[in-house]
Amino acid sequence: MEQEGIQEEYVTLSDWYEDWNLDVARDKMMFPGGTTDPHMDGSLINGYEDDQLEIKIKPDTKAVVLRLVNSGMAGTQIIHAEGKHMVVIETDGILVKPYAVETLSLAVGQRYTVIIDISDDPIKLINGCNKMMGYITKMFWMAKSQPTGELRFDRNIKDLPGFYRGELYKELEPLPSADGNNIKILGDRENNEDMQRITLDYVYARDDDDVRQKYGTEMYKVNGKTIQDYMESPIEVESGKTLEIVINALDHMRHPWHMHGHQFQVISLGEKRDGTLRLGGEDEETTVSDAEKKYHEDLQYWIKSGKTPMTRDSINIEGGSFAVLRIEPNRPGDWLLHCHVEWHVAKGLGVVIRELPKPSQQSQQQPQWQQSNEPSSQTNSNETMTKDFSTSKVKVLSIYFLIMSILDVILYWIII
């Protein structure tokens, strides 16, 4: 419910393609030499391709609560309110201490809530949708009365004040939750023996004949496997034991990573070309890399400052760099961790993490993902099928993935 003098508005920002996504996948992606990033034809604001849209503001409004969503397929979105600061109060459903920015960057799938003072009328907002070479630029109004004149923006999006495509992971600090459990860094000691860690290295396998033979095109691989492989053989982790996830980008592109079922703390985040992060004897080299230095500097920052790392479920990771995320596995089941560029997840960029229940939980009650929805079948083949698809969690993930990739690619070929 809106308070007096406060108006709430939703703004979705998206890239746009003239062709149906199945046609894009068939004609531009899913064949040997096919692209990973089809050409985008435009951008949308609240579903409209038009430039100079207007959001009508009530006469007595003093401030606008703007809920921003990047609902696109691939492009990072930039938003700027000319002559105004936007006060960030929420990231991906997590309330944060108010933080003022001039320009905000949204990775695919990210959500922000900002407050903008509307005492001036009208307010010009500038939007840039990132494509392979530059930005698609549009402008729109927030106005109490009919705006006059034409919106113009003759500069480069990168010249906007406060422009930054990275993540404000040290600035956007979560507000304490009701139980206060979120106000410390997970695994708060640097050498926490109770913490488990997985390292994920991803790259586009351009010259892999086995992949081309299996999928008919090149695919992304994470630790040598595609997300399709992880659907059959998930990465298993323990419940109730802090999990540190190291993600290393071995290619040059920026990728937005998203996790299902959890909101993670962003412990450390490399800049472009900081290199891969190797910890805990993963690398025999004795010299300390830039990535390792950055990781330990960030850990010390959290410990000494007492601040809580930014917490959310989607984050941009620069090419040739790394990210370190931490979660508290407390939801036994299978959860996707994947690139949120829909073209990339269709080409294999992601993993499935299976949270195993604690022994005490397992003895008391089988988790949902292990429970069979139907009695055992009479034949061995049916028993195998029941075993493979017995859990409702796996079924949900399977349906999700089928929608995103198989229906978008393989079934389309069969249909036509």
From TrEMBL:
Residues 360-386 are annotated as: Disordered. Residues 10-120, 218-357 form the Plastocyanin-like domain. GO terms for cellular component: fungal-type vacuole membrane. PROSITE patterns: MULTICOPPER_OXIDASE1, MULTICOPPER_OXIDASE2. Keywords: Ion transport, Iron, Iron transport, Membrane, Metal-binding, Oxidoreductase, Transmembrane, Transmembrane helix, Transport. InterPro entries: Cu-oxidase_2nd (IPR001117), Cu-oxidase_C (IPR011706), Cu-oxidase_fam (IPR045087), Cu_oxidase_CS (IPR033138), Cu_oxidase_Cu_BS (IPR002355), Cupredoxin (IPR008972). The keyword ATP-binding does not apply. It comes from Zygosaccharomyces rouxii. The chain crosses the membrane at residues 397-415. It comes from the Eukaryota. PANTHER family: IRON TRANSPORT MULTICOPPER OXIDASE FET5-RELATED, MULTI-COPPER OXIDASE. GO terms for biological process: cellular response to iron ion starvation; reductive iron assimilation. One of its GO terms (molecular function) is copper ion binding. This is Plastocyanin-like domain-containing protein. Residues 360-378 have a biased composition (Low complexity). Belongs to the multicopper oxidase family.
